[in-house]
Amino acid sequence: MFLALRDLRVQRGRFVLVGAVIALVAVLSTIVSGLATGLVDDGISGLRSLPLTHLAFQPGAKASFSRSILTEVNLGPWEDAAAGDGFDVSPLGVSFFNARSAEGTSLDMALFGVPPDSFLIPDERGRDALAGEPGLVLSEEFRSLGISEGDMITVSGIERTLPVVGFTFAGSYGHVDIAFTSLQTWQELVYGDTVHDRFSAVAIRATDTTDFPAVNTAAGTETRTKTQAYAGSPGYSAETATINLIRGFLLVISALIVGA
């Protein structure tokens, strides 16, 4: 004890410096962890909040909505299996759009197209909004841009104008705030007025008895769990890999400092 106290007195500057470095590394680790959590949440919060357990994609799509195109032919076997086993399925369309308000405010949105009676819309008010005339149910984050219910939103490029019929806590996907519309309206925006049987994926709320291999074979799809589908969010894999690499380096640096 005497020798330790003597070393502390004689080399107090060194010990203070080492302690300060360790504290700074700890603070940096906390900041990086917070950044990682924020990035991940901003990329997948909307998908995570949906009441589904799995998603069925076109084979080879790698859980990416933009790479997956399914039709009623793919949906049929899933609906038959759901009717027999008592689980829920719903077609889901996902695309990114740029739009503008009547005042000229530019808006980026991840547009989710769902049928009005889908299990993905548990709120009765939301179902009523999507069952009426074509319109948009926006994430609450759009309010900060001055958007209000009843405003008219024009989808750029297509020049289709739709009213805002409501707001919900939808979150974001791919770092873009989510907007909901009916599946038919989504199909018209993506494919035009003549195509009404295409969508991006089949959303599934499965049970323990769901036979995924058999239904995938019959439907010509491949299934991912909700967690696995996070990887399809734009930039998600690269962001998480980069953050984990930084965390690893911080751990190594901390160990070297403490060991020294």
What keyword list fits this structure?
260 residues, 6-stranded mixed barrel, alpha+beta
Average per-residue pLDDT, rounded, comes to 88
**Main sheet specs:** 6 strands, mixed, barrel
Low-confidence stretches: none
By DSSP (H or I, 4+ residues per run), the number of helices equals: 8
Please estimate the helix content: 40-55%
Kindly, what is the distance between the CA atoms of the first and last residues, rounded to a whole number of angstroms?
20 Å
Q: State the total count of DSSP E strands.
A: 12
Portion in strands: 25-35%
Question: What is the N-to-C order of secondary-structure elements (H for helix, E for strand)?
Answer: HHEEHEEHEEEEEHEEHEHH
Strand line-up in the sheet with most strands: 3-4-9-5-7-6
Instruction: Give the tally of structural domains.
Output: 2
Class inferred from helices and paired strands = alpha+beta
Description:
The protein has 260 residues and is of the alpha+beta class. The protein has helices at 2-10, 12-49, 72-85, 124-131, 183-191, 212-219, 226-229, 236-259; strands at 54-57, 70-71, 88-101, 106-114, 136-139, 152-155, 160-168, 172-173, 176-182, 198-199, 201-205, 222-225. The protein folds into 2 domains: 2-47 and 237-259; 48-236, no CATH class. α2 runs antiparallel to α8 (236-259) and α3 (72-85) runs antiparallel to α6 (212-219). The longest helix has 38 residues, at 12-49.
